[in-house]
Amino acid sequence: MTEKKRSKQHSPGRPRSEASRIAILDATVELLEESSYAELTIEAIAARAGVGKSTIYRWWSNKAFVVFDAFLVSTESTLFFLEEGSLRENFRQQLQSLAVTLNSALGRTVIGLVAGSGEESEIAAAFHNDFLNSRRADAKRIIERAIMEGEIQFTTNLDIIADMFYGPLYYRLLIQKKIVDSSFINTLVDQVMKSICPSQGK
């Protein structure tokens, strides 16, 4: 789900202001840290960002997608894999960063929107297409590198390993509705490594 599909088009001659966009997204994050999603309004976002409501509605159809875009921007500089390091350490640091993101007010709000929207909804599709797919592609690249470097067996199925790392985390968040902490991440990574590479599981 691209932003073009979920955002209203603005008229020619009124280019989207990057400064206004960032102000709107920053204001959204701040307001969610101060109150709840139910209390969040377009009026409040506009007032905090110093823009008119029409500016927000020109770019986003509703507050859910403002929140989701704020979430995407917040992950750009935090959720990444290292270009060096072992598979274990790469997933440990990436999943720790992911846990911090999803445990934040913004992350909890997005998870709540996805969990409560139904799998056919636009917000669920956006979460899958714009967030999960890119995370999964990066993860498979790192797993493939580990295979090429002989860290794990070359017969390993990339999708299954990605599911082993991410599946328990999302199950805990979406189904069990529990917090994911450092202890959980460390245990998860250790258990997966024991399964796919016993010699490095210790």
Automatic annotation (TrEMBL):
Molecular-function annotations in GO: DNA-binding transcription factor activity; transcription cis-regulatory region binding
Highest rank taxon of the organism: Bacteria
Ribosomal protein found in the keyword field: no
DNA-binding region, residue range(s): 41-60
Keywords (A to Z) from UniProt: DNA-binding, Transcription, Transcription regulation
Pfam families given in the database record: TetR_C_11, TetR_N
Name recorded for this polypeptide: TetR/AcrR family transcriptional regulator
Species whose genome carries this gene: Niallia endozanthoxylica
